[in-house]
UniProtKB/TrEMBL annotation:
<feature type="compositionally biased region" description="Pro residues">
    <location>
        <begin position="137"/>
        <end position="156"/>
    </location>
</feature>
<dbReference type="InterPro" id="IPR039391">
    <property type="entry name" value="Phytocyanin-like"/>
</dbReference>
<keyword id="KW-0325">Glycoprotein</keyword>
<keyword id="KW-0479">Metal-binding</keyword>
<dbReference type="InterPro" id="IPR028871">
    <property type="entry name" value="BlueCu_1_BS"/>
</dbReference>
<keyword id="KW-0472">Membrane</keyword>
<keyword id="KW-0186">Copper</keyword>
<feature type="domain" description="Phytocyanin">
    <location>
        <begin position="26"/>
        <end position="130"/>
    </location>
</feature>
<feature type="compositionally biased region" description="Low complexity">
    <location>
        <begin position="157"/>
        <end position="171"/>
    </location>
</feature>
<keyword id="KW-0812">Transmembrane</keyword>
<keyword id="KW-1015">Disulfide bond</keyword>
<feature type="signal peptide">
    <location>
        <begin position="1"/>
        <end position="25"/>
    </location>
</feature>
<dbReference type="InterPro" id="IPR008972">
    <property type="entry name" value="Cupredoxin"/>
</dbReference>
<keyword id="KW-0732">Signal</keyword>
<dbReference type="InterPro" id="IPR003245">
    <property type="entry name" value="Phytocyanin_dom"/>
</dbReference>
<dbReference type="GO" id="GO:0046872">
    <property type="term" value="F:metal ion binding"/>
</dbReference>
<feature type="transmembrane region" description="Helical">
    <location>
        <begin position="197"/>
        <end position="214"/>
    </location>
</feature>
Amino acid sequence: MKMNCFTCMVVLCAFSAVMLQCALAAEYVVGDGIGWNIPPNGAATYTNWASGKTFRVGDILVFNFGTNTHDVVQVPKASYDACNSNNAIVSVIKNGPANVTLDTAGDHYYICTFGGHCTAGQKLAISVSSSSGSPPGANPPTTSPAPTTTPPPTTTPSPTAACAPTPSPASKADGPGTAKSPAATTLTPPPPSSSNAVFASLSLAFASLVLVFLL
């Protein structure tokens, strides 16, 4: 059960990452309304279309063309200038419309391989930036790290001082010196009361009278 839950979490995270990438990616229709065709104003048409646009890794180019009438292929700059596909970077895409994902930063060149189309201006050159937004080949400015200040050490009160015993009231009253213990007192039994003595005397007198009558 734990393994199944873990697998589901991994799949969910991967799916979320893909969806996030798709959400952040921009989609550009090459040539807008004219699509991917022989442009009426020559190669300047696609040059003007690309100017002012920022292409980033992950973006998508949509080449709108009819199958069997045009195609598209990515080539190096030399082949772009010469209008040939001898050193094509990828296979020729013959079915339209075609979606091309920009997966690397740098200069990208595309042409149509149909005879005479490239020389008539059906070619596109763009510059792709990294996904972070920095232009290709440009290094972001370096900033010096701010000096770190070390906070002054904090003093912790001594446990002995914090827990010192409170002097007793007796020691404060006696003042400095050692407090004296009270002297031990010995309890002496009280002397017999006078009522006991009178009772004893009466008892003795009564006993004497009894003896007198008996004799």
